[in-house]
Amino acid sequence: MGIKKTELVFQSRQEGTPLEFSPGETMSGAVVLTIDGSKPHKLTSVVVKVRGRAETDWKTGSGDDESRHRDTEELLRLDLTVLGNVGGGQPTALPPGRHQFPFQLSLPPRLAYSLKHMDGKIRYECSARARSDSFWSFDGRACVPFEVLARRDLSAEPQLARPLTVSREARFSLLGRDPGPFRLYLTRQGFTAGEVIDISLEGPGEAFQALAKADGTVQLKTRVVFRAGVSTRQKKWVAAAVRPGSSPDAWRHIRLTVPAGEVTLDDSSGCTIISVTHYVKVRDVHLPVVLGTTPLRPS
């Protein structure tokens, strides 16, 4: 007798598909309780909780010198009482049968998206607990993980529409001819998938000749940084690349297309122990860019 089954159902979920929400979206659903037996069952409360957490965890060294680096950060905490009063009050008697308690909870507009990596992860879950009034009766519990989709509205960050200029100075090199000084210029700093990053280079002719002779690539790179106290660990990979070629003039203006699936995750999302940043690499110069899902407004 008592609570036979506790379920969480969501309006936006189709059977067989993962539960996903965007930042700022409202989670609409219901706690469904099935009461068995022949008598009413008394509950003090039914509470819905939404939690988000970032975790980092990796090891360095081996044997006696092995060290473990771990950290956690709470990203989201939402509570909603859908039945009763958590602080006290009279219990509610539910007759045998199936009972639904609808709820709505709005996610914040800026929220770190779900991420899973061997050195860290960002995860979310929605849980419900039905508290029985009797000490001898079991509480009802249900927990459903969900994913927060990668969303970043660049139109809300007008500063990313400003141009960016980075100057490179001549450097001594043992690996070949140094191209010498040149300047790199971006017309803006925010981009979405499918958009083209226009990179302009200015400098003496010798610089373009050296770049062309090296016949290297211009890369859009992703850098993921995991933090645990004062320790950090990072992973980098090439998200997109283009080879301008062996003609010096080809290095004066370079076009690099942003691929799908890359979204910048920085402190503005509320997560400080995991970050995902992007930059354009030309030779040994890095130009930081921000990748989002909603483009900048036309100027």
Tell me what you see in this structure.
It contains 1 helix and 19 strands. The chain is mostly beta strands and 299 residues long. A hairpin with a 2-residue loop joins β15 and β16. 3% of the residues lie in helices and 55% in strands. The mean pLDDT is 92. The strands form 4 sheets. Strands 2, 4, 5, 6, 8, 9 and 10 form a 7-stranded mixed β-sheet that branches. It has 2 domains: 147 residues, Immunoglobulin-like (Sandwich), CATH 2.60.40.640; 139 residues, Immunoglobulin-like, CATH 2.60.40.640.
Quick gist of this model?
One of its GO terms (cellular component) is cytoplasm. The chain is mostly beta strands and 299 residues long.
The total of beta strands comes to 19
Termini, distance in Å?
A: 66 Å
Q: What's the CATH topology name of the largest domain?
A: Immunoglobulin-like
Structural class of the helices, strands and pairings? Answer: mainly beta
Structure annotation, total helices: 1
Compressed to H and E, one letter per element, the order equals: EEEEEEEEEEEEEEHEEEEE
Mean pLDDT: 92
Largest sheet: 7 strands, mixed
Any idea what the radius of gyration is? Answer: 27 Å
Q: Any low-confidence stretches, pLDDT <50, length ≥5?
A: none
Percent helix range: under 10%
Number of domains: 2
Beta content comes to over 45%
Family: Belongs to the arrestin family.
InterPro entries: Arrestin-like_C (IPR014752), Arrestin-like_N (IPR011021), Arrestin_domain-protein (IPR050357), Ig_E-set (IPR014756)
Protein name: Arrestin domain-containing protein 17
Domain Arrestin-like N-terminal: 21-153
